[in-house]
Write a structure and sequence with these properties.
112 residues; alpha+beta; 3-stranded antiparallel beta sheet; 7 strands; 29% strand
Length: 112
């Protein structure tokens, strides 16, 4: 066409090579660990950093967050002794709206 000979095969090989190389590297961020699976079976655990894998045969199975987390701590506002911008004193409940506060008649009416 227009006097130019154009071969598509080198372009297809180049694109396939670029896809292969782009899938071959894996970077695990700091504070995480990834499990590497080959054909769906666990192979090893990847630590944070740069890794080379075999594309199409190996893949990431699970991404685990390894950062320290406090499971016994309460919410930050309660932990600092404040809630919604008001100071909380020990033994004193937060003030409720008068419209939402139960009345004596509703308390006694709900008893069996």
């Amino acid at each position: 066409m227009f006097g130019l000979e154009f071969n598509v095969l080198p372009i297809i090989i180049l694109v396939a090579l670029l896809v292969f190389v782009s899938k071959a590297w894996l970077t695990v961020p700091q504070g995480f660990q990834y499990t590497l699976e080959r054909f769906g079976r666990f192979k090893k655990t990847l630590e944070p950093g740069f890794h080379l894998i075999t594309p199409f045969f190996e893949g990431v199975g699970r991404r685990m967050n390894m950062m320290e987390q406090c499971s016994t701590c309460r919410a930050r506002s309660d932990h600092q002794g404040q809630r919604h911008g008001r100071r909380r004193r020990r033994g004193v409940l937060p003030v409720q709206d008068a419209a939402r506060r139960p009345t004596r008649s509703t308390i006694y009416a709900s008893r069996p």
